C-alpha cells in the first residue's frame, strides 16, 4: 500500500546538493493550495518555512548551471466500472503529501520516485517535490482531486531544467480520460525544451499524448511489481545521459488491438515472459529501453491495449524495428494473453481436494473482486461458496465494510455479535445481493496500521483503516474500513492471526500476495467470483473502447502502422 502523509502545504521542497540542504518555498501559482484544500474539504496549515543548510553549495549542471529538477508522483489505476469513488483523500492516509513530506515519504523507499531523488542528488541538483499522490485502484478520480494534483505539479514546474514523473499510466478522471497524457501535455507546454522522463506501471495504458510529450518512457518489467525502484533508476539514467549529451533518445511505439487479462500478464511465464525476455535482449544489444505494457483493460477508454514502447539512441529506424518485432511477436501469441476461468464452485471444490493431507494453507485468490484492480473488496460469493461446501479453518480478508467495522468497534473485544457484512456496493456489473449475516466473537480491534516487509513497497507503512476480527468458529474475518491489498503477512499478523495456521486463506487478491503467501501455502487456486474485476469481459459493457479489439471481437486483424 502506498502510504503518504497529510501536509496540505502550498510549497515545494528543494534539497540542495549532496548534503541535502533544503529550501521550502511557496508554489508559483497561488491558487494551487486553495484548489487542494477545496478538493480535500478541509483547511490546511498553509505551511511555509525555510530549513537552514548548505544554501550556498552549488553543483554543476547543464551549461555550468545548477540543475533544478522537478520530481513528482501521481499513481492511480482506474477501473471505470468500479463504484468506489476516488477523492483526493484516497491518495494517501489523509490525501497526498506535499513538499518536504513528499520527499520524505519516498526517500529510502522502493518507489520510482525514490530512485529519481537518489539520481538527482548524485547530480547535486536542486530537487523540487511538489506532490506525491498514490491511491489504491478504484473508480474514476474526482475532477477536483485530479486538478489539485496536476496543478501542484504544473505550478512547481516553472523554471525547472528537467522533469521526472512517477506515473501509473492508467488514470482516468471525471474530467480526463487520459490522466497522464493530459498532465504531460501541460508540463510540456510550460517547458518546451526541458527533458521529461517518465516511469510507468507495467499496466499503464499508453496514449499518443504520453508519447508526444515525454523524452524517456520506461515501465516496470515485473508482475508482481518488484522493480519499481530499478525502473525509476533506468529512466533517470537515460534522462541524465540526454542532459549530458551522451544519448539522443527517440521513442517508437506499437499498440496491437489486444485487451489482455491481468492474470496472463505475469512476467514469469507464457507469452508475457517471452515478450519481456525479448525486451531485455534488445536492451542488452544496445537499445536504451524497451517496455512491454499489457495495459489495464478495465479502463473503458479508447485503447486500453497492450503496448510496446522503445527508447532508441538517435536511430529511429532501429527503434521502430524493435517495437515492430516485439509487437508482432505479441500479436502472434495473442491467445496466450486471454484468461479463461473455471466456475466458482469448481474452484472451491478443487481447493478442498488440495487441502486433504496438506500441512499448509491452501490459497483461494478472489480475482473477481481483486483489490489492486479496483475491486470493491466486499463481495461475499467466494466465502458463501466455501461455507456451502463446508470448508473449515478459514481466514478471509481483508473485507471492506466500514459499517460492520463501526458496529464491531462499538461492541468491543470479546463481545458476541451478529452483523451484516459485504454485498453493500452496487454497480452495473454487480447484481444486488443481500449482505451476509454473520454471528461471531470480536477477537481484535486495531487502527489497521503495519509496516510492509514484503518485496513490494518494502518498508512503507500500510493503513487499512480501523480493522476488526470476527471469529465465527469456522472462519476468521478480517474486516477493514478501506480496501487493502494483502501485501504481506502483516495483514493478518497485525491483528493477531497467524496465517500459517489457517487451513484455507481467502484473499481479495490476484497477484501481489503471491511473493509472500505462496511460500507458506500448500497450493493456490484462482477463483473468479462476480465482481468489477472479473476475468469474464462479457460482464462489462464497454462503451468507449475502439472496435474491433481482441478478444471481444474474435476476427480482429492487425496491420501495424507507424
Automatic annotation (TrEMBL):
This is MlrC. Residues 35-62 are annotated as: Disordered. Residues 364-544 form the Microcystin LR degradation protein MlrC C-terminal domain. Pfam families: DUF1485, MlrC_C. Residues 68-351 form the Microcystin LR degradation protein MlrC N-terminal domain.
Amino acid at each position: 500500500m502506498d502510504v503518504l502523509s497529510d501536509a496540505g502545504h502550498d510549497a515545494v521542497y528543494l534539497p540542495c546538493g549532496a548534503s541535502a540542504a533544503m529550501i521550502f518555498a511557496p508554489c508559483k501559482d497561488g491558487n494551487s493550495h486553495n484548489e487542494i484544500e477545496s478538493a480535500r474539504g478541509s483547511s490546511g496549515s498553509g505551511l511555509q518555512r525555510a530549513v537552514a543548510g548548505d544554501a550556498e553549495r552549488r553543483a554543476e549542471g547543464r551549461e555550468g548551471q545548477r540543475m533544478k529538477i522537478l520530481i513528482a508522483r501521481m499513481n492511480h489505476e482506474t477501473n471505470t466500472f468500479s463504484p468506489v469513488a476516488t477523492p483526493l483523500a484516497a491518495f494517501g492516509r489523509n490525501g497526498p503529501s506535499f513538499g518536504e513530506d513528499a520527499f520524505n515519504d519516498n526517500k529510502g523507499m522502493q518507489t520510482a520516485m525514490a530512485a529519481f531523488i537518489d539520481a538527482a542528488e548524485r547530480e547535486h541538483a536542486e530537487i523540487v517535490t511538489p506532490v506525491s499522490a498514490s491511491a489504491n485502484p478504484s473508480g474514476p478520480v474526482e475532477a477536483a482531486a485530479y486538478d489539485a494534483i496536476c496543478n501542484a505539479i504544473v505550478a512547481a514546474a516553472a523554471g525547472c531544467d528537467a522533469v521526472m514523473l512517477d506515473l501509473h499510466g492508467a488514470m482516468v478522471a471525471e474530467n480526463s480520460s487520459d490522466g497522464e497524457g493530459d498532465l504531460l501535455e501541460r508540463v510540456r507546454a510550460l517547458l518546451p525544451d526541458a527533458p521529461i522522463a517518465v516511469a510507468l506501471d507495467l499496466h499503464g495504458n499508453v496514449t499518443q499524448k504520453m508519447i508526444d510529450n515525454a523524452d524517456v518512457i520506461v515501465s516496470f518489467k515485473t508482475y508482481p511489481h518488484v522493480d519499481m525502484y530499478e525502473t525509476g533508476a533506468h529512466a533517470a539514467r537515460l534522462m541524465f545521459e540526454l542532459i549530458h549529451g551522451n544519448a539522443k533518445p527517440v521513442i517508437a511505439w506499437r499498440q496491437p488491438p489486444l485487451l489482455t487479462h491481468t492474470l496472463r500478464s505475469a512476467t514469469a511465464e507464457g507469452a508475457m515472459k517471452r515478450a519481456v525476455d525479448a525486451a531485455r535482449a534488445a536492451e542488452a544489444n544496445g537499445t536504451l529501453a524497451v517496455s512491454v505494457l499489457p495495459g489495464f483493460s478495465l479502463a473503458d477508454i479508447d485503447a486500453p491495449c497492450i503496448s510496446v514502447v522503445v527508447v532508441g539512441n538517435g536511430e529511429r529506424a532501429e527503434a521502430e524495428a524493435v517495437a515492430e518485432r516485439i509487437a508482432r511477436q505479441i500479436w502472434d501469441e495473442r491467445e496466450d494473453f486471454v484468461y479463461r476461468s473455471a466456475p466458482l464452485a469448481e474452484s472451491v471444490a478443487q481447493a478442498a481436494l488440495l487441502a486433504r493431507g496438506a500441512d499448509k494453507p491452501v490459497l483461494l485468490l478472489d480475482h473477481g473482486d481483486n483489490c489492486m484492480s479496483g475491486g470493491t473488496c466486499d463481495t461475499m460469493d467466494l466465502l458463501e461458496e466455501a461455507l456451502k461446501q463446508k470448508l473449515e479453518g478459514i481466514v478471509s480478508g481483508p473485507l471492506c465494510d466500514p459499517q460492520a467495522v463501526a458496529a464491531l468497534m462499538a461492541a468491543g473485544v470479546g463481545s458476541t455479535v451478529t452483523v451484516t457484512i459485504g454485498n453493500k456496493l452496487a454497480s452495473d456489473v454487480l447484481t444486488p445481493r443481500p449482505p451476509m449475516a454473520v454471528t461471531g466473537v470480536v477477537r481484535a480491534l486495531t487502527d489497521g496500521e503495519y509496516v510492509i516487509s514484503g518485496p513490494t513497497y518494502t518498508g512503507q507503512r500500510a493503513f487499512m483503516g480501523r480493522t476488526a476480527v470476527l471469529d465465527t468458529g469456522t472462519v476468521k474475518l478480517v474486516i477493514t474500513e478501506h480496501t487493502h491489498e494483502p501485501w504481506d503477512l502483516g495483514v493478518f499478523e497485525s491483528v493477531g492471526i497467524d496465517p500459517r495456521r489457517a487451513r484455507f486463506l481467502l484473499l481479495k487478491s490476484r497477484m501481489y500476495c503471491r511473493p509472500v503467501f505462496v511460500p507458506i501455502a500448500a497450493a493456490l487456486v484462482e477463483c473468479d467470483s462476480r465482481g468489477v474485476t472479473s476475468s469474464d469481459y462479457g460482464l462489462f459493457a464497454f462503451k468507449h473502447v475502439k472496435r474491433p479489439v481482441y478478444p471481444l471481437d474474435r476476427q480482429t486483424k492487425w496491420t501495424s502502422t507507424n
